[in-house]
Amino acid sequence: MPSLTLLGQAVVSGLLAGGLYGLLALGLSLSWGLLRLVNLSHFALALLGAYLTYQLGHVAHLAPWTAAALIVPVFFVVGMALHAVFARFRVTEFTSLLVTFGLAVILESVIQWFWTADYRRYETPWASASTRVGPLFVPTLELLACLTAATLALATWAWLRFTYVGKALRAAAEDPAMAGAFGVNHRAHAFVLSGISAAYAGVAGAFIALISTLAPAQIWVWLGTVFAVAIIGGLGHPVGALLAGFLIGVSESVTMAVAAPAWAPLVSFSILIALLVLRPERV
Amino acid sequence: MRPALGLVAAGLALATLPLAGLPAFYESFLYLVFHWVALATSWSLLSGYAGYFSFGHGAFFGAGMYTTATLTAGLGVPFLAALPVAAAVATLLSAGIGAVVFRIRRLRGELFGLLTLAITFVLATIVLNTRLDGGPGVYLSNVPLPRLVASPTGTFYLLALGLAVLTLGAAYAITRSRLGLGLFAIHDDEDVAEVEGVPTFAYKLAAFALSAGIAGIAGGIHAMYVSYVTVPDTFSITVPLYVVLMSVLGGSRHWLGPAVGAAIITASLYAFTGGQQAVIGRAVVAFALILVILLLPEGVVPAVLRRRRPRARAEPAAPARPATEARDAPGVTLECHDVWKAFGGIQALRGVSLHVAPGEIVGLVGPNGSGKTTLINVISGHYAADRGRIALGPVSLTGRAAHAIAGLGVSRTYQIPRPFAHFTALDNVALAATFGAARCAPAEARAEARQWLAFTGLGRRATALPHELNLHERKFLELARALAGRPRVLLLDEVLSGLNPGEITSAVELIRQIRARGVAILFVEHLMRAVLDLSDRVVVLNEGEVIATGTPSEAMRAARVVEVYLGRAHVA
Amino acid sequence: MVRGVVIAVVLLTVSVTAGAAPSGQPIRIGGTLALTGPLAPTALLHKIAGEVYVEELNKGNGLLGRPVEWVLLDDQSKPDLTRSLYEKLITVDKVDLLMGPYATSGILAAMTVAQRYNKIFPHHSFGMPHLAKYEMHFPTAAFGPEPNRTVPTTVFDALAATANPPKTVAILTSKFPSAQFQSSGAKEVAEKRGLKVVLYLEYEFGNRDWGALAARVKDANPDFLWIGVLGLDGNQMLEAMKKLDYTPPRHFHLFPAPGPLAVAPDAKNALSVTVFEEHPPFMNNAGAAKLVPIFRERAAKANVPYAHVETQAGGSFAAWQILEAAVNATKSLDDKTLAQWLRKNRVDTLIGKLRFDGPNNYGDDLFKVKQVQDGKWVVVWPREFAAPGARLLPP
C-alpha cells in the first residue's frame, strides 16, 4: 500500500504535468474551436519558442523571462502572418491539417539546421528548485507553468465571454453566415486570435525549455496527448483545456505511483473512453 | 465501368513487374507505395466518405501487425495463414468499437477522432505490457516467407499490390453503390440521411469494419516486411497522421484520391534521402506539399478531373411527363395514439393522438414550442417516443429506426431546408428515391429524381449544388426529395414559410396534386391562409397537448384555441 | 554535394603533396543513418565519425590504393525505410561494401537485406546480441553475447570494490528494447549477488512525467539507483528527485546523452558504462591519437554540444576500422573472404581488441564503468582502465 505522502506527491506532480499539457492545448483548442483550423504546427512553434529561449538564455545569457518577453510578441506577429496565409487561400479545417503539418516539418528542419539534432538542455538554477508544503514538495518551475496556464486560460475565457471581440469570435464560430449578417468583422478578429494562439505557443515553449529537454523530433512527441486534452476540454474552451490537462496528468501520475508506471496511459485513456461513451453530453 | 477495367488491367500489368528483372529496390519501393495506398484508401472508406474522422487507423494496423507477429513468431502459424486472422482481429476490434460508439449521436466529428486516438493509446499500452510484446519487440527472422516469386521483395511487392488493387476495387465499387451513396449522405448530414432511409448504423459499421480489416492485413504484411515489430514504431503517430495527409492531398471523397496522395507522399519520402541534403530536403518536400494543397484545396484527383471535365456537363433536359402514378403504393392511415415525449425536464408531447387518412391533409397548428416539430421528429423516428403508439395502418412504427420508417413510406421535409451539401439537386432527390419506400436501383433513381425535379419546377437546376440555390428553390428541393421516396405519409414542416405569394400559390397547388395521389399529409404551418385553404381537418397543439381538432373553421373557433392564439384578454 | 567537393579538394591536395594518393575507381561503401527523426541526436555522432574516418582514409592510401566514397542515405529513423534503402544501396547503387545504420531496429531491418544478398555487415550500435543470427554481421557495440549478464556484473563489481558497497538497489527502466533487456538482467544479477532489489519499475519510452517516479524512488530510498535510460531521461529523473529534496547516494545511467549529464548540477558522481573515453589507456588504442582530435574539431564545428569521442563515436570508428583491417589483410572486397578473415582474427580498434568468434559473432564485453568527476567523464573500473589517479568516488 503506497503511503499517503507518495499519493499526495503523485497528485501534485500530475496536476503540474497536466498544467503543461493544458498550456500547450490552449492555443490549439482556440484556433481549432473558433477558427476551425487544426494547427499541427502549434507544437513546432512551441518547440521553436523553447529553442529560442535556450539560445537567448544559455548562449546570450538573457534571463528566461526577458527571453519570453522578446519571443511572445514576435510569435504574436508570426501567428497573424500565418493567418494571413490561411485567409488568403481559404484554408479549411480539413486542408489545414496538411498545410500545418508541412509547416511543422519545415520548422523541424529549421531547428535541426540551427541547433543540430543533438539533445539540448537549458541548465538553470531553478530546474531543481521546489517549495516544501507539509510533507509534499511543489516544484517551482512546474508550479509557475501551471499558474501561467491557469491565468491565461481564465483571461482568455473572460476575454471570450465579456468583450465584444470575444463574443464576436464565438458567434462567428457557431454560425459564420449569421455573424457576418450582423456585421461582425470575423476576419479581423481571427487575426488577433491566431496571434494569441501563436503567442501561447511561445509561452509554452519558454516553459518547455526550462522544464524539459530539447531535440527537434520532440515536435511529434506531444501531439497525441495534447490533441486528446484539447478535444476533451471542448474545442474553443480555454478553461476546459486546462481541466482536461489536469484529468490526464493526475490519472497518469497516480497510476505511476501506485501501479506499474508503463500502464499509466491505459488508465488515463480508459477514463477518457468511458467518459465519452457513458457521458457524451458532458464532454 | 471503365475505371474498374483500367484498375484490373493496371493490376495485372504491374503484377508482371517482378519478371522484368528490375533491381529489387524498385519492388521494395513500390511495396511501400502500395502499402500506403491500401492504408490511406481503407481509411477513407469511413473517414473520407462518411466523414467519421478516425485518428485510430494505427490501432487496426497495429492489431494486424501484432496478430501476425504473435501467430507466426510465437505459435508457428504460417505467414499467409496468419493474414486472415490479422484481418479478423482488426475487423472484430472495429466492429466492437463501432457497435458501441455509432449508437451515440454525440460521438461524431472530433469526438470520434478523440475516441479512436484514445483506443490506439490503450491498445498500445496493453501490447507493451503483456506477453504480446512486453517491451523487447517481436523478431520474425525465423518465420518462413512463402515464395510467390523468386525474390522476397517480389513476394512483398505482389502481396501489397494485390491488397492495394482489392482495396481500390472495393473503394470504387462502394462509391458506385447504395453503401457509398449512403456514406456520402452521412458525411453531409447524418440525421437527415437516416430519416431519408439510409441505414446509417449498419452502413457506418460496415465501412468501419472493412476499413479496419484492410488495415489489419496491411499491418500483417508489414510485420513480416520490417521483421522486427516494436510498440513505439507500430503505434506511433505516423500511420494515423499519414493516412489523413495522403487522403487530404489526393482528395478523400474520390475512390482514387487517397491512392494518389499516398503515391505522392511516399515518393517524396525518397526524394531527399541523400545524406547531405536530408534536413533541407525534408523542408523542401514539406513546402511543396503546402503549395499543392493551397492551390488545389479539394485534392489532386478532384482538381485534375475538374480541369479535364468542366462541371457544365450537358444534363439531358428533364422529361416532361409527370411521375407515373401507377407505381404508387396503396394509401394507408397514419395513427398516433397517446404519444409522450420529454427532453430532460421539459415535456414536449403530452399524450398526443391524431390520425391522417390516405388522401387527407391534416393541418397541425399551434404556437412556437407547442411540439409540432417534435411530433414530426417522433413520427419519422428521429426521436423515440417515451410512451404511446404510432402506426401505419396495421404496422406499428414504435421502436423502429428512422430509416426503417422511411422505408415503410414516411417522408418529411425540414422547416429550414437540409439538403446534402456536396450532392447536386439531382443526387439529393435520387438519394431519397434510392433509400425511401421507392427502393430504386441507383440508375433508376436518377431517372425518377429527374421527374420529381420537373414536378417541383427544378428541372433546370438538376446539376446545381445546394448552396447555389435560392431559398425557394431549396424549399422545393426539400419537397422533391420527400416525394422521391414515394411516401404514403408525407410530413410537411412549414414548407411555405419564407416564400412570396406567387411561390406559395404554386406550392399549394403542388400539395393538392400530391394529395390527389392518395398520400396522407400532415401539414405543419404558421401561415393560416394556407392551413384553412388546404386542410381537410386541423389539429391544434399547445404545450404538447391537443387542444382542439375538427374542420378548419371549427377548430379555429374553439375557445381554447382563440385563447392560446390571441391571449386571454380577447376572450373576455 | 558540398562533401563531394570537400573530398575532391582533399584528394587533390593529397595527390599533389604526398604522392601516395589513392587512385582509380572509388570503393563505394553504402549505409544509412537516422539523420532526421527521433534517433537523429545520436546518429549525428555516427555521421561525423564516419566522415572523419573516410577523409582520413583518403588522405592516406585509401583502401587497396583506391579512394573510398561513403554513400550515406537518411533513413528518417524508420525501419521500413531503412530496409528499402539498403536494397537501393545494394541493387541500384551497387555499392561494394555495407556499413550498418544507427540503432537496433534499423540494424535488424538492414541485416535481413544484407543476409539476402550475402553482404558483410559491420554495425556499431546494436543492443540485442541474441537477435543477431546472420553469420556475416560484425558488431562493434562490444557488449559481448550476454550484455544483460555481463554489463550489470561489471557495474556491481565496481560498486562492490568500494568502501561501503550498496545493499539495496532500485531499478528503473525505459521500455526501450535494449535498455529494458539489460535492466531486467541487472535485477537478476543484483539478486544473485545478494543485494536487495527494493524497487523495479518499467516506464513507457517517451515518458514526460517524472514526478511520480521520483516519489517512488524516494519512498524506496535505495543505496543504489540503476536507471535504464536513453538520452536525457536520466537528467530529468535526477532533477525530479532533487525537487523532492532527494538525491540517491549512487546512481547509474545506462545509455545517457553523455554531454548534458556530465554538466548537470545534480549529476555529481553519476555512473555509466563506456568503451572509450579521451584519456589513457584508451588514447593509446589504435587510431585514437589521430582520430580523436579531428573528431572533436569537426563535432565542435558542426555545433554538437558535447564534442567528445565516447561509446557512440568510438563504436563507429571501430566499425570502419574492422572493415579497413579486413580489406587490407585480404586485399579483397569479396564479402565472404572478408567475413572469414574477421571471424578468425582479432582487430585492434579505437575501443580495444575486438574478436568475432563467439556466439552470434560476439566477442568480449568491453564495457567499463565511468563516473562524472568534476564535470567530466572518467573511467573508474576495471582498475587497469581507470584514468590516471581516478577511482570510483563513494557517496
Sum this structure up briefly:
Chain A is mainly alpha-helical.
Task: Write structural notes for this entry.
The complex is a heterotrimer of chains A (283), B (572) and C (395). Helix content of chain A is 75%, strand content 3%. Chain A is mainly α and 283 residues long. Chain A has a two-stranded antiparallel ribbon with strand order 1-2. Chain A is globular. In chain B, the strands form 3 sheets. Chain B has a 6-stranded mixed β-sheet, sandwiched between helices. In chain B, strands 4-3-6-7 form a 4-stranded antiparallel β-sheet, with helices on one face. In chain B, strand 6 and strand 7 (395-396) form a beta hairpin. Chain C has 395 residues and is of the alpha/beta class. Chain C is 41% helix and 19% strand. Chain C has 12 helices and 14 strands. In chain C, helix 6 (177-192) links the parallel strand 6 (168-174) and strand 7. In chain C, helix 3 packs parallel to helix 4, helix 5 packs across helix 6 and helix 7 (211-220) packs across helix 8. Residues 1-19 of chain C have low confidence and may be disordered. The interface between B and C is large, with 38 and 44 residues.
Q: What are the salient characteristics of this protein?
A:
heterotrimer; A: 283 residues; mainly alpha; 3% strand; C: 395 residues; alpha/beta; seven-stranded mixed β-sheet; 12 helices; 14 strands; 19% strand
Q: Can you tell me the residue ranges of chain A where pLDDT is under 50 for at least 5 consecutive residues? A: none
**Shape label of chain B:** elongated
Helical fraction of chain A equals: over 70%
Classify the oligomer: heterotrimer
Strand order of the largest sheet of chain B: 8-9-10-5-11-12
Report the sheet with the most strands of chain B, covering strand number, pairing sense and barrel closure: 6 strands, mixed
Give the strand order, joined by hyphens, for the main sheet of chain A.
Answer: 1-2
- Our measurement of the CA-to-CA distance between the termini of chain A, rounded to an integer number of angstroms, reads 33 Å
Given the structure, what is the number of helices of chain B? Answer: 24
Tell me about the biggest sheet of chain A? 2 strands, antiparallel
User: Rg of chain B to the nearest angstrom?
Assistant: 28 Å
